[in-house]
Amino acid sequence: MTRDKVSIHGAWASRWVFILAATGSAVGLGNIWKFPYMTGMYGGGAFVIMYLVCIFLVGLPIMLAETLIGRRGRQSPVNSLKSLALEAGASPKWSWAALMGMVAALLILSFYSVVAGWSLDYIISMGRGTFDGISAEGAGAAFGALTSDPWRLTLWHSLFMLLTGFVIARGVVAGLERGLRIMMPLLFVLLLVLLGYSMTTGHFMQGFHFLFDFQPDRLLDGVLAAMGHAFFTLSVGVGSIMVYGAYMPRQASIGATVLTVGVLDTLVALTAGLALFPIVFAGGLEPSAGPGLMFVTLPVAFGNIAFGQLMGTVFFILVLIAAWTSSISMLEPAVAYLVERTQRSRAFVTSVLALLCWLVGMGTVLSFNVAADAKFFVFAEDGFRLFQWGAEGGRNFFDSIDYLTSRILLPLGGLAFVLFAGWVLQRETVRDELALRHPRLFPWVYWAMRVVAPLGVLIVFVAELVK
Ligand code: TRP
What we know:
By secondary structure, the chain is mostly helical. It has one domain: Amino acid/polyamine transporter I, CATH 1.20.1740. It is 74% helix and 3% strand. The chain has a two-stranded antiparallel ribbon. Helix 7 (150-170) crosses helix 8 and helix 8 packs antiparallel against helix 14 (308-342). The longest helix is centred in the C-terminal third of the chain and has 35 residues, at 308-342. The chain is globular. The termini are far apart. Tryptophan binds next to helix 1, helix 2, helix 5, helix 10 and helix 14. Pfam families: SNF (PF00209). Keywords: Membrane, Symport, Transmembrane, Transmembrane helix, Transport. This is Transporter. It is found in: Membrane. The chain crosses the membrane at residues 12-33, 45-65, 96-120, 155-173, 185-205, 225-247, 254-281, 301-326, 347-368, 408-425, 445-466.
């Protein structure tokens, strides 16, 4: 009794294209830039373990929920949730979760584009040999020179936003599918080349131990960060995966497909770590450098090893491609929604939204230089302030958006989606859509969606608030 709706936006040619698209969305700056530096900050192996637990117990059930809601609804996340809620006799207000997700995705895109823009700058300076023989201070200064120059940041941010809008405006098949078919294989090849290279540095085992040695005392340091990151890296909680699910063919098993995506994303993150840390150690650098890890320590490493100029250029091209296949998935939920709602053309809607994200992104651009002292979420001795110029603590605009999305909006969105699939949709609907290869596993998977994942999010969320 499958009633099949069709999406007005188009459909992937096969389940493999969904895997490409969802993996393209999942694999991004989160894997190559954030994961290694967070692992470095939160003590290596201990963080990796918490991250894996969060991915498999919480992230994957939410991804299942999103994919099946999308495929069942065949519309933008907002309208899919609305129509499925009405069909199930529940409140159409469930769609507010998707509305919030849509806004969160646009907020993420605003800063993602700025950071992705750095990789454009680095492709050029790497290729030109700017980093040849550079010292750690030199690389720090080069990164500082980039982030303190609002014009340079604006240039690259604008270019990256144009690249993103270009693919989205061309549509699901001519834009996304075609782009992904070229970019994803390239991404994997580049990553393997880099891994092969790091094995020749002589520090491979040191990197390996750093990533996988277990330090029980640091286990709890990074749980909150690990949960936030599990959402971010899998692209769940905002409707990116849901909108891709809407373009997925009917016959495919969601269970097997989503597992493939989760495993690929995790493998890429671990491979990126295995490729990066040996290079960091080979350059005699600190793994705990924070967000600058990729942009400061790596150029030093690449600038001082054989074939570094070539490998460094390859590396930043890899970063660019990974970021590009992710950024398009942040824009798609809102574009699909506005096309449905306003009946305007994709190109028009894309231009308006990209411009909006670009504008918000300018806040991030300025937060690295002229507006570095504009602080939000300030917890001072005499109380909490939302905004204060020049406050001691607090977060600048970039950190605030990152915090607001990763730690608050993504978990809330993910919680709503998984609760909707687990408690609002009928059990049979969920079972049919998932179409697990091993039906005996269904009760376990269903239980993970109804209980384990929501509890996981809630616990971490409350811990975050009382911390
Ligand atoms: N997962 C991507 C990364 O790791 C980023 C991303 C794409 C994302 N779409 C998203 C993050 C939606 C949160 C929500 O870089």
